[in-house]
Amino acid sequence: MSHDPNCIFCKIIAGQIPSKKVYEDEELLAFHDIHPWAPVHVLIIPKLHIASMVELTEAHAPLLGKMSVLAPKLMRELGVSNGFRTVINTGPDGGQEVYHLHMHAMGGPRPWLKG
Ligand code: AMP
Ligand code: ZN
Fold this sequence. Notes:
By secondary structure, this protein is of the alpha+beta class. Helix content is 20%, strand content 22%. It has one domain: HIT family, subunit A (2-Layer Sandwich), CATH 3.30.428. A five-stranded antiparallel sheet has the order 1-2-3-5-4, covered by helices on one side. The protein is globular, with a radius of gyration of 14 Å. The termini are far apart. The model has no long low-confidence stretch (mean pLDDT 97). Adenosine monophosphate binds at residues 8, 17, 19, 33-35, 43, 89, 95-98.
């Protein structure tokens, strides 16, 4: 399924739910996390609905590569200059709450709320 009408991140991509966007192209969207753990906390998502890393195939490798390359670029643009953390939570034991693949990118001066 390329789009799940019940998925909150698919609704953000479709503009049905507002978000504070920081980046968008044909394949990816990035926006500020609604409950930030760190002074800067963005989520990088593919526009394609992929529920989690468990669903990934070899064909998705370039997409994941693009997400990884985007993270440092966005951190730099958002003023993060002393390092950052990237996290992808997968499944119940991984603490995944939203089942549309997303990479957290967090930075800014510590202390942070979590992580
Ligand atoms: P995870 O536990 O990795 O699935 O993280 C889901 C993240 O999505 C959490 O950090 C939430 O704060 C964030 N989140 C949920 N709904 C929204 C939303 N409407 N806009 C921005 N971030 C959201
Ligand atoms: Zn989705």
